[in-house]
Amino acid sequence: MSSLRRDCISLILKYLQEENFTETAHSLERQSGIFFNLNYVEELVMNGEWEEAEMYLSGFTKLEDNKFSTKIFFEIRKQKYLETLDRNERLNAVEILMNDLKVFSRYNNDLFKEMALLITLDDFRKHKSLGKYGDTLSARASILREIKKAIGANPVFVGKMELPAIDTAALRSLANEDA
Fold first, then answer.
1. What integer pLDDT is reported at residue 143 of this predicted model?
2. How far apart are CA 96 and CA 44, in angstroms?
3. Mean pLDDT of 119-148
4. Does the pLDDT value for residue 132 go beyond 70?
5. Model pLDDT, residue 102
6. What phi, psi does 34 have (nearest 5°)?
7. Are 149 and 75 in contact (CB under 8 A)?
8. Which one of 69, 110, 165, 173 is CB 3.0 to 4.6 Å from 61, fit for a cystine?
9. With the C-alpha atoms ordered 153, 144, 65, 108, is the resulting torsion angle positive or negative?
């Protein structure tokens, strides 16, 4: 991406944020890929907005990009699955298992089988690895820590965690030329 294009997008993002056009700003962040808003991802995870979190992340990385990206997507989908089981929505859990989690079986088939086994339990917390699962908000906070670690270690996000610094005097100069 050219420096001029990057600067223009950064200025637009700053404007959108200042004017509280947050949805539009997040859409531009995702579409341009120049600024990754970690606070927004935190908000999505803590609110259980799994599809929106994946869609936002997909503007920056794909599941197959590297092990860190795989970890991020796995944690999101796993939590979505566990919350569905916790609400006793077995049919939806099977759909999530087959549509969202099956892709991870190529990385660790035994883990996938264990996750499938959870459907058979009255309470998945009875599984030895999930005995300390706790409540939904605590679990979300826990996976958020894992996601943030993976984002911090992921080379895909290097240089995208802060908006590029721009000389706002240049924008004023452009605006004054137009006037």
1. 96
2. 18
3. 92
4. yes
5. 96
6. -95, -20
7. no
8. 69
9. positive
pLDDT in tens, 57-74: 999 999 999 999 999 999
Rounded to an integer, what distance in angstroms lies between the CA atom of residue 72 and that of residue 57?
9
- According to the model, what pLDDT value does residue 7 have? 85
Nearest to 98, CA basis, from 162, 84, 133, 15: 84
Continuous segment of H or E residues that includes residue 139: helix 136-153
For residue 120, CA distances in Å to 36, 88, 116 come to: 39, 11, 8
Give residue for tokens 């995702």.
Answer: 30
Rounded CA gap, 10 and 34, in Å? 8
Tell how many helices (H) and how many strands (E) occur in the chain. 9, 0
C-alpha distances (whole Å) from 103 to each of 45, 148, 165 are 21, 22, 39
Which residues are CB-neighbours of 109 under 8 A, at least 6 positions away? Answer: none
Give the whole-angstrom CA distance, residue 64 versus residue 87.
30
Amino acid at 110: D
Single-letter residue type at 75: E
The residue written with tokens 């341009």 in the block is 32
- Confidence (pLDDT) at 3: 80
pTM, full prediction: 0.89
